[in-house]
# Entry
Amino acid sequence: MTAKKKYRRAIVYMRRALRVHDNTALWFAQKEAEEVIPIMCLSPDKRYEKDTPRRRFVTASMWDLEKSLRRLGSSLTVRRGDPTIEIPQAAVDYEADAVFAVRGCDPATAKRDQRIDVALKKAARSWIALDDRVLIPPAKITTGKGEPYRVFTPYYRTWLERQELITPELPGIRSLHTPSIGEGLAHHIEQPSETGGESAALRRWRDFLKSGINSYKRSRDLPAIDGTSILSPHLALGTLSIRKVYWDIQESKKSADPSSRENIDAFLREIVWREFYYQIIASFPHAAHGAFNEAADDIAWSTNRKIFDAWCGGETGYPFVDAGMRQLAKEGWIHNRVRMLVASFLTKDLHINWQWGEKYFMENLVDADVASNNGGWQWVAGTGTDASPWFRVFNPTTQAKKFDPKGDYVRRYIPQLKEIPGMSIHEPWRLSETEQLQAGFLLGRDYPQRIVDHSIQRLEALEMYRAGFSRRDS
Ligand SMILES: Cc1cc2nc3c(=O)[nH]c(=O)nc-3n(C[C@H](O)[C@H](O)[C@H](O)COP(=O)(O)OP(=O)(O)OC[C@H]3O[C@@H](n4cnc5c(N)ncnc54)[C@H](O)[C@@H]3O)c2cc1C
# Structure
């Protein structure tokens, strides 16, 4: 005889964990409730209806989730509106005793969840938030004094020592009992032609684990090749379980040779950066709205919209920077090396507040993630504690020659420049008009002139930072 379950009916609020494999909210809901209703809450904001790479990715992921749920005998119910109102209302409408969800790690989600919790309590229903987004919850990695870490390396060392806290993957769910209730996905969003979501994530991860990971250290810095996992969209949306990634890695390491093991460890280190930024944003919520190092809030940034728009549109005249921004517009994703460079260029060459760039990335990245995005921007801008020092300024041309030595990355995203031979592609302003025409383009006609001169901007940036930081001291 099976034991009676704790709840008759539970809602699973599906957000940032759009999968059925190893999903703590879904798994514990089906363990503790007779009936389970997976629900997504769509924003009524029309901005999200624009056809962007991000929207296509999210739509494909929702449809893939719907398919996986159907295979388990369930379905995906959709509500539209503010989740702090819709989720408690759904619990009342569908007579659910509890709502399960994966715990949000950033301050805005935590605040929203608190409001859902209060509303559910008022309606005599339970809110159950479960850890899922990270391998080790932020509060479990602290210094000897019990304080959160501010610097990556000691955090990483402690993280490595605490791996026994990582829970195993959950067993697969065989079936779900879901009453037929509410509106399905088809009522709200058309089925896309492309595939995505959990199925694509698992395929991509399997392929990367089989080969790419073994040369990760060597290949990860070259944006022209497929040298990284490109799993960030899946980890951000939760179409891939981070525990699955971790445990698969442990399994692979057992039979790996020393060189492969080194590559696997380098990959895991990046995953720990992701965990680190979650602990930063959770422990220092002010960083979500301003500089982690508050003294940096006094820097007098430029507010030149025209210059900012040129950066967004990939029209700065620096090909490596522009290729990155054009990749973002086209694919919703940029290689990490290039993210660092475009962020440095915005802050230290164009003198524009990193928060403008942070917001633009959040709106356009397929892998937009509050913690990693904020951490990445503050690191580059030199406004965080564990940051690249503010006086370190990337030279866009040197960076381009180092990380795109053949110019293939630039050629892919700026075809107007593709006939420029070798490394000259990174400095089109050095070509005479005749050389430009021989290469099939003209500066100012087919590709913009440089909007700034790096060597001048660098010096001005140093002055701007120095003055900003000294304002608090005086
Ligand atoms: C200005 C800036 C903004 C960024 N914004 C985001 C963002 O919104 N979302 C996001 O997921 N990453 C962000 N990153 C981090 C990093 O660029 C991406 O995670 C990485 O490029 C994703 O590619 P990948 O999956 O092939 O990474 P891989 O190299 O294959 O790494 C595997 C995973 O580790 C994590 N990871 C790798 N590098 C970092 C890093 N530096 N910081 C945090 N996590 C990391 C990601 O989850 C990634 O999927 C940002 C970095 C910078 C400099």
Observations:
- The radius of gyration is 24 Å.
- The longest helix spans residues 258-283.
- DSSP finds 19 helices and five strands in the chain.
